[in-house]
Design a protein that fits this description.
Elements (H helix, E strand, L loop, with lengths): L1 E3 L49 E3 L64 E3 L6 E5 L6 E6 L4 E6 L5 E2 L6 E9 L2 E9 L1
Antiparallel strand pairs: 1-2, 3-4, 4-7, 5-6, 5-8, 8-9
C-alpha cells in the first residue's frame, strides 16, 4: 500500500514499487454471521492516510493445489473477486475478476494514531455552532475533517472559533499542524 499524487501510471497499473506492507496473514476468516457489503480486516501496521492523494493497494493471494478462494456470492459474472486454480503447479491464480472492492478508512482503525501528541482540546465539546481549540495559538492553520478523511473546512484560527454551522450532527476531527504532519482531536456536533 502506498499513496501518491499521481493519477495515471506510466506503463499501466500492473506493477508498483515502494509499497508498505500493512497486512500479512496466512489465513483470514470472515466471522460467521457477517452480512452486508463490508467487513473489517484489521491491519498489522498503521499508515497515515492523505485524502488528497491516490491510494494504491496491491492485494496478493498465494495458494496451493488445495486453495479455493471466493466470496459469499454465487454470481461471479465479473462482479466479485474470485480465486479458483486447483491445477496450477505453482499455486498462482489464473482466474480473478475484480469490481466493487473498496476501502473504508476510519481514523480510529488502521491509520496512525495522531491523537497521542500533546493535548489539543476542542471546546465546547459537544458543540452546536462553533468550537475553540485550547492549546492552539491564534492564526494557527486548522482543518476540520469528516470521519472519512474529507477536509470540510480549513483556514486559520480566529477568536470566533471554527464555524460548525451547516454541518450534520455527528463526529468530526479538528486539526492543527504538528511538525511535518497534523495533530487531530475529535469534536462532536450536536
Amino acid at each position: 500500500m502506498t499513496q501518491t499524487s499521481a493519477t495515471a501510471f506510466v506503463g499501466g497499473d500492473t506493477f508498483f514499487t515502494g509499497l508498505d506492507t500493512v497486512l500479512t496473514r496466512a489465513t483470514f476468516t470472515i466471522a460467521p454471521g457477517t452480512t452486508g457489503d463490508w467487513f473489517v480486516i484489521p491491519l498489522d501496521s498503521a499508515f497515515t492516510f492523505d485524502a488528497s492523494q491516490t491510494l494504491v493497494v496491491d492485494i496478493s493471494f498465494t495458494g496451493s493445489a488445495t486453495t479455493n478462494f471466493g466470496t459469499y456470492s454465487t454470481n461471479l459474472a465479473g462482479r466479485k473477486l474470485y480465486w479458483n486454480d486447483l491445477t496450477s503447479p505453482t499455486g498462482q491464480s489464473v482466474v480473478t475478476t475484480w469490481q466493487d472492492i473498496g476501502f473504508d478508512l476510519a481514523p480510529t482503525t488502521g491509520v496512525v494514531d495522531r491523537f497521542a501528541a500533546a493535548p489539543l482540546i476542542p471546546y465546547p465539546n459537544p458543540t452546536i455552532s462553533s468550537v475553540q481549540l485550547a492549546g492552539a495559538a491564534p492564526n494557527t492553520p486548522f482543518q476540520l475533517i469528516h470521519t472519512d478523511g474529507r477536509i470540510l473546512r480549513s483556514g486559520t484560527l480566529s477568536p470566533e472559533g471554527i464555524d460548525m454551522n451547516g454541518l450534520d450532527p455527528g463526529l468530526y476531527f479538528v486539526g492543527i499542524p504538528a511538525r511535518s504532519s497534523w495533530r487531530y482531536s475529535p469534536v462532536v456536533k450536536e
